[in-house]
Amino acid sequence: MTAAIIELDKINGHYLNGLEEEIILEEGLVYGILKSSDLKNTVINQTIKFTARIINT
User: What is the pLDDT of residue 54?
Assistant: First the structure.
């Protein structure tokens, strides 16, 4: 079993990968991530990027 982590953008309620392909995922598998540039802010109210754990068996 291998696992991969991908970075996604959320645009108009849809998750897009780096190739701008729509990825359909269960909400429970999607997590917000912070980039180093996000950490310059004192308060972080929301995440801009997302990730999902994809398990290949």
Answer: 66
Instruction: Give the position of tokens 């995922």.
Output: 25
| 0.90 surpassed by pTM | no
Q: Name the 3-class secondary structure at 27.
A: helix
Beta strands 30-33 and 2-11 are unpaired
Alpha carbon distance 24, 35 (integer Å): 23
CA distance 44 to 32: 12
Q: Is the pLDDT of residue 19 over 70?
A: yes
What is d(CA 12, CA 42) in angstroms, rounded to the nearest whole number?
27
